[in-house]
Amino acid sequence: xxxxxxxxxxxxxxxxxxxQMWVEGFGEAGQRRLKNASVLVSRVGGVGSAAAYxxxxxxxxxxxxxxxxxxRPSDLNRQLLMTHAALGTSRIASAEKRLRELNPRLDIVxxxxxxxxxxxxxxxxxxxxxxxxxPRFSERLAMNRAAVQQKKPLVNCAMYDLQGELTxxxxxxxxxxxxxxxEEPPTWKREFPVFGAVAGMIGAMGAxxxxxxxxxxxxxxxxxxxxxxxxxxxxxxxxxxxxPQCPVCGVKTER
Amino acid sequence: xxxxxEYWNQARSAAGCxxxxxxxxxxxxxxxxxxxxxxRHGGRLRSLLLGADDQPRPSxxxxxxxxxxxxxxARPLHDGDVVALLLPIAxx
Lengths: 255, 92
Description:
The structure holds two protein chains of two kinds.
Chain A: H1 11-16, H2 18-21, H3 27-36, E1 38-42, H4 46-58, E2 62-66, H5 91-102, E3 107-111, H6 120-125, E4 129-132, H7 137-149, E5 154-160, E6 163-169, H8 177-180, H9 196-215, E7 224-229, E8 234-240, H10 251-254
Parallel strand pairs in A: 1-2, 1-4, 2-3, 4-5
Antiparallel strand pairs in A: 5-6, 6-7, 7-8
Helix pairs in contact in A: 4-9
Chain B: E1 2-7, H1 9-15, E2 19-23, H2 30-41, H3 43-49, E3 61-64, E4 67-70, E5 82-86
Parallel strand pairs in B: 1-5
Antiparallel strand pairs in B: 1-2, 3-4, 3-5
Helix pairs in contact in B: 1-3, 2-3
């Protein structure tokens, strides 16, 4: 969208986002791009809570959030948009409430369901960028298929134990998630060991990648996988090649 | 040839170490490295790396000098390469 068609900022928004508008290369133009942007985050559990919270804090105009189920005690070591008072009640309602407390200007579409092939296309169609934070490959791969088909960027954020990983998919330019993992791997279990701080780290980094992709600042992890190990404080950045035979983004699918 | 192996995520906890150095025949491919490590360690690492058919699971990922691909992708290995083993994770 041309810069002069981006929404203007209100005085309240200028005051709220003042410090980030001082960031080199971002400025008021970058802030207006964030205000104009819509982002899908699913789920809004450990990683997704942090990603959605920092996107809300940054002034994203619209968040589409998908997460089903009710808050359980075991959510509360990492799902920072859930509260003790919300135990037994809708996770998505708690997430929406907490985000609105931070940023009442935010437009939120709250979907009380997980992403699947049945709803992924519709959800992705409502946004310009996807942040994938779901604990099942079926959900991540559904978001990946829809994002590739609709040519929308996807930030993939995942964690296990004290490790996190992050990559950005730019359909048509980079590998997609299916280039590495085309189907549900039998080795992944839905419940896994993790600290909340790991979720916060990866979620915050995912939010920053989304902000970079929307505003054009910095160098997003397009075609690269960042691995971070908080046990040893070792990081690795690996290059991911596109698979020409990929069932989702491969050469045959582009014809 | 000598390879430096790094283990990440579930592979690390199953191997019981961050990494190691191994000797493997010249001309070995990533799948051969996966099979070698599965047999070397046995137990949980073996069950993570090999399927019911005793073949390397296609979902295992191998990075050679920080270039990542599924283990089924045939790529040359050279003496001194750093090879990282990763399993797909989806923790959210």
